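The methods section describes the discrete structure representation at length, but only in general terms. An entry of this sort, consisting of the sequence and the corresponding backbone structure tokens, reads as follows.
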Amino acid sequence: MSSNEPSPSLLLLLVVLLLSWTLCRGDPEPVQDFCVAAPHGSGELAFPGLPCKPSSSVVSDDFFFAAHARGASTDNAMGSGVTPGNVDAFPGLNTLGVSINRVDLAPGGVNPLHSHPRAAELVHVVGGDMLVGFVSTEGRFFSKVVREGESFVIPRGLMHFQYNVGKSAARAMTVFNSQLPGVVFAAQALFGAEPEIPDAVLAKSFQVDAEIIKLIKSKNRKG
């Protein structure tokens, strides 16, 4: 080996350091006690997260959230309502890496197939009976009827749903390890994207006629 060539041990060390830096960069820790999110276009810089409200103007109510005391309407085609508790709705969560939603389902209602690209989800049922399930990257379907006081965890980024299998209204609190987990609804993403995914692509992907794709798109258009 030439004296100018790096040794295998040095190369291994560089790879380990690079991987460690990448992992740390992808999941940074807050650098202050709290950082209540400021209104858009104002506040102090923060890392990670949204700009901080000046600490001198932070009050106790910034850490309080009452929206989950009442549920969202389930009077819709899905029979479901979600009350978000992410950083957009609850500024005190900024940089803390956590959020919580309330899910209300009418009898037979469903929180339709969707995924959260930035977070795992813990579903804790506080009323009624819900069938909760997800599909793994291997195509395996995992599900369980979750009853009052029970929980079910959904790994990050996997397609999942909650469905009310009971005869009365059901309610769950869903907790995420991200202040803003994001959500991608399967039907809307595929059949309601703007601009549209070509009918031919969807027809070929699902092995159906283009007319069926047009019908499904008509039910998923915004507005």
The helical segments are 8-26, 186-191, 199-206, 210-218. The chain has four helices and ten strands. The radius of gyration is 22 Å. Residues 21-27 have pLDDT under 50 and may be disordered.
